[in-house]
Every structure is written in C-alpha cells, then in structure tokens.
Design a protein that fits this description.
The structure holds two protein chains of two kinds. Chain A is an all-alpha fold. Chain A has eight helices and no strands. The longest helix of chain A is centred in the N-terminal third of the chain and has 20 residues. Chain A starts with a helix and ends in a 7-residue tail after the last helix. In chain B, a hairpin with a 5-residue loop joins strand 2 and strand 3. Chain B has four helices and three strands. Chain B has a three-stranded antiparallel sheet with strand order 1-2-3, with no helix packed on it. The longest helix of chain B has 32 residues. By secondary structure, chain B is an alpha+beta fold. Classes of the chains: A mainly alpha, B alpha+beta. At the A-B interface, helix 1, helix 2, helix 5, helix 6 and helix 8 of A face helix 1 and helix 3 of B.
C-alpha cells in the first residue's frame, strides 16, 4: 500500500489538470486540491480505509469543482479560461485551444467530465468509479462523445487530425 | 461477418477489449477495409482530442509541500482504544471494591444501640416517669445495658 506522500505526489498533477479544465486556471484550483488532500489525510488517519485512492481523489476533485461552480453562482464556461494560458500559448496552439474549448462547451455535463478524465489517461474501470457511469457503457459513451466533438470541430472548420 | 460497432472500436483503441474481442476485431479489420479505416480514424480522433484537451491545462504543475493539518486530533488505534476501555473498567471495579470494603469495615467498627422502657407502660403515668433502658452493642457483639430513671 502506498504512503500518503506517494499518493500525494502521484496524483497531484493530474488532479490539478482536471480541476483546471473544469474551473479554469485560478487560485481556486490549488485550494481545492489542498482541501481534498486534507480530507483524504484526515480520513485515512482516522482509520478509514479508502480502497481506490486514485478514484476517490479524482471523484472528489470533480465534485469539489462542481461545488465551486455552484457556490460562485455563475457557470464559468471553458471559454472563460484565464488569460495567463492564452498569453503563453503559440498561435497554432491557441487556435486549437479555442476550437476545443468551444467543442467541449457544447457537451452535456457528464460528457464533459468523461472527456476530461479520459484525456488524463484513466482506465475504463477508473473512469467508471470516478464518473459513476456504468463500466459497460464507457466505450459507447466515449465513442459518441468523441464523435460529437469531432463534428463540432469540423463545423468550426478546424482540421482536428491534420 | 458483420462490421464492428463503434463502442468496440473505441474499447479496442483504448486497450480495454478482452483477448476474444481483440481477436475478433483484428480478424475483421484484416479483411474489411471500411472497418480498418474506421479504426484508424477513431484512433486519430481520440489522440487528437486528448492532445487538444491537454492544452487546456498546464503541463508543468509544481507540487507544493503538503502541510499536515493540525486541526483534527488523531484517533487512537483500535488496540489502544480497547486497552483504554479495559483500564476504565478496571478503575470502576476497583472503585466499587474500595467503597464496598469501606462500608463493611464501618459496620464492623460501628456501635449500635437500642432503647426501650424498663417496665410495662401505664397510660395513667407520664412518659418521663418510666425508666429508660439503652442497650449499646459494640463491634464484637457485646451488649451493655444502661438504665436511665
């Protein structure tokens, strides 16, 4: 079994990226991730056994990000991603980013979460644990979501796989 | 043989198919150009979307040092908890034994007494005119009789 330090180091970056995609690159992301790890630390120290720490942490990240949206009472769409990223991106990357942001914004909430965790390389089993989608439905839902995004990107005349 | 569904293709490109499905897909795409193209197309779409999604978040994320929270008190382990209960029960038992023992000792060293009138009561006489007898019983059970007239 991994130690807390190992779990923290192994998952911090991915959780940070997932949260950034969901709520934008803001100070809130660091706070959310710290809060989750404090919860995790307290739970494990109080004798609770968390069977799948990775899934637990990603699920907590998604839930906290959703809560963060709700508490701010304004849905921060992916279009409103912070300018720091935009400034540092090259023109080509920027074009791709704009296109993908728009494509993601057209998805249903569950599809957004699915594509976010999928792009982090989680296995289907982990995706099912994190999102609550049935394991047997992941492949179907994923192919449908990716197709939707592809269609959206094509409608923006963005050549996805050039 | 019928063509492969998109969900199976998706599972195949993500490495989530079991060996039987892998064999079915590979046998099929070896002979079906349409499905082979579909697999390549879907693989390319998935890879490109993953790449594009990764642009939305920084690659270089600095991991801050985790500060151990000082708030919640660490809960003792089950063994320590059980041990504390045993100690507490032992203390209560000891307390009960000490109290009971004290009471018994008290009754042993205590002096009991009993009062009575020395003669039959005559209703025509005042109570103060009757002699009073006090019996004092010591710790060893000896009775000492005192008369007050």
């Amino acid at each position: 079994m991994n130690t807390f330090e190992e779990i923290y180091t192994e998952n911090y970056r991915t959780m940070f990226r997932v949260a950034t995609r969901m709520i934008g690159d803001s100070e809130d992301v660091s706070d959310i991730i710290q809060e989750i790890f404090i919860d995790f630390f307290n739970k494990t120290n109080n004798g609770n056994i968390i069977q799948h720490p990775k899934s637990w942490l990603y699920r907590a990240t998604i839930n906290k990000c959703i809560d963060n949206h709700r508490s701010r009472k304004q849905y921060q769409d992916l279009e409103s991603l912070d300018n720091r990223n935009i400034e540092s991106a090259s023109a080509e990357n920027q074009e791709m980013k704009d296109a993908i942001i728009l494509a993601v914004s057209k998805l249903k909430p569950q599809e957004k979460i699915l594509v976010t965790v999928y792009s982090e390389g989680l296995s289907y089993k982990e995706i099912a644990e994190v999102t609550g989608i049935k394991f047997t439905s992941i492949g179907k839902m994923l192919s449908r979501t990716l197709k939707k995004m592809e269609k959206q990107l094509k409608s923006q005349r963005y050549e996805l796989y050039s | 043989m019928s063509c492969i569904h998109d969900d199976i293709i998706q599972k195949y490109i993500d490495g989530e198919t079991d060996p039987v499905e892998v064999s079915l897909v590979e046998t099929h795409i070896a002979t079906c150009k349409i499905c082979a193209l579909k697999v390549e197309n879907q693989r390319s779409v998935a890879a490109s979307i993953k790449k594009a999604m990764n642009l939305l978040a920084k690659d270089s994320v600095e991991i801050p040092e985790f500060e151990i929270p000082s708030g919640p008190v660490k809960r003792p382990s089950l063994t320590i908890k059980r041990f504390s209960w045993v100690i507490a029960a032992a203390c209560i038992l000891l307390f009960v034994i000490v109290i009971t023992d004290r009471k018994e000792k008290k009754s042993r060293v205590g002096i009991a007494y009993d009062t009575d009138f020395a003669m039959d009561i005559d209703a025509n006489r005042a109570v103060s005119q009757f002699p009073l007898v006090i019996n004092i019983i010591d710790a060893d059970g000896n009775i000492y009789e005192y008369s007050i007239k």
